[in-house]
Structures are given as C-alpha cells and as structure tokens.
C-alpha cells in the first residue's frame, strides 16, 4: 500500500512538472526565420547603411551604420510585441549546431522610437556581427506587451556570410563624418597667426568632403574672432584675415562661393576668459555653421 501511494505521488509530481513545461513552451511567442528564407537586404547611401533581415509577422532585424558613427542594432516593426521594459540579448546555437554553447551578452531597454526598439549599443552590435559570421544566432528575449508570455526574436545566421560582403561594400562608401558632426565647427588658431595649420586644414577637409556630397546644404556661415591681446583695430583685421583664409581654402577646394556668408568681430565676442591662457586659446577661433534643407 505504501509503495502504491509513493508511486502515485511520484506520478502526480511528474505530471505537474510536464504540465508546467508545456505551459512554459506554450507561453513563449517565437519570431524567427526558416533557414530556406534567410536573406539580408542592404540599403546604402554616402550617409548611412541599413543591413536588414526580414522576419515574418514582425518586421526587420537591422544593423544600422551612420557616417562618422559606430554600428548599432535594432528591431524595426510597426507592431512592437515587447513590453517597454528590459530585454535580454543572448547568443544561441541554431538548431543545426546543437553542440555549440549559448552565451548571455547584455540587457537592453525596450524603447519604441519611430518603429525602432531594442536598440543595442555599438560594442554588442559588433559582437553580434562576429557571432553571425561564426554561425551563431543572436536572440532577444523579453516580456510580451499584452499577454503573460515571453517573446523571443532570433536573428538567423543562415546565409549571413553570403550577404555580408554587401554590407562591407556599403560601409566602405560611407563618408567619414555626418551632418551633425560638421554642422557646428570651431577652428582654433595660434597666437597672432592667421594662416591655417595642419589641424585646421584636416578639419576643413572633412567639412568640404561633406559639403561636396550633400546638395541639401544651402548656407555656410563663417565668423572670425581673436583673443584680447593687441589693439582692437589689430584684432579686427586679424579676425578678417583668418576668415578670408578659411574662405579661400573652401573656394579652392570646390565649394560654391554663393553659399558662403562671412563676418569678423575681433575680440568683441569671447567665449572664455581672456585673462587666462586657456581662455585666450578658445577665443582665437573661426566658426563655421552649416544650414541644410529639411528632408
């Protein structure tokens, strides 16, 4: 009798465990790509690269690289299935590599921003690329938005190496800077000097490269300044010379002169204390401000 009772209890416990496992499996919503459907799409300009894997009933798993910035990863979808909380990023073995070990990478905030969410910072986005090349599957797991269930979004490594050269070609085309990085510029000059040193020329070359690539830039404002050493007349003329050197450099490199407006102010508008060495160095400057048509 005791043996039968013990056996009955054991059976009940087993059934309870199996029921919980079944419920757990049933409460996980999966988004993934069958091996035969795994593709990547590249969208490229001089200013940005999109490298996307379509995921049925979800949207896209997207690597995004803006000119002058590092790569990031995010999920694109018109219907975000995840609750706006934390999600985990793991590296998992696809079903055809059962012996490979899984790895937890990081937690990310689920933030919905113009159909983009679960943005992964550059360090882990680069790691995701490496793992895909090696045949592993980056996986995002988090709580569902409305139901009491888990959501798993898995990026398939199938065919990744076939499409990866398309991304590399896109990346190679990118400009070294984006508009946000050249929109406001400060060129710092040596004491009493108006000519362009090597550092200033390098700054200008990046600005010029962007200007020649983006026809939507419609205004370039150049303003010259000095520190307070010397007379006001001398400083005004010095700021004029600095402004003219910058203008001439832009024109020589092919920038349209009708885009440029110039002014020079001498010592009138300091941005730092002229009583200190560091303050003077910040005041000896030419600023360049770009304006651009809205997309």
Q: Can you walk me through this structure?
A:
The chain is of the alpha+beta class. It folds into two domains: 29-173, Sandwich (Immunoglobulin-like), CATH 2.60.40; 179-292, 60s Ribosomal Protein L30, Chain: A. It is built from seven helices and 14 strands. The strands form three sheets. A five-stranded mixed beta sheet has the order 1-10-9-6-7. It has a five-stranded antiparallel beta sheet with strand order 2-3-4-5-8. It is elongated and about 75 Å long. The model is unreliable at 6-26 (pLDDT under 50).
Write a brief structural summary.
By secondary structure, the chain is α+β, with helices and mostly antiparallel strands. The protein is 34% helix and 31% strand.
What's the end-to-end separation, in Å?
82 Å
Please mark out the parts with pLDDT under 50 across 5 or more consecutive residues, or reply none.
6-26
- Rounded to an integer in angstroms, the radius of gyration calculated over CA atoms is 29 Å
Largest sheet: 5 strands, mixed
User: What is the H/E order?
Assistant: HEEEEEEEEHEEHHEHEHEHE
Total number of beta strands: 14
> How much helicity do the residues have?
25-40%
Spatial arrangement of strands, main beta sheet: 1-10-9-6-7
- The DSSP helix count reads 7
Class computed from helices, strands and strand pairing: alpha+beta
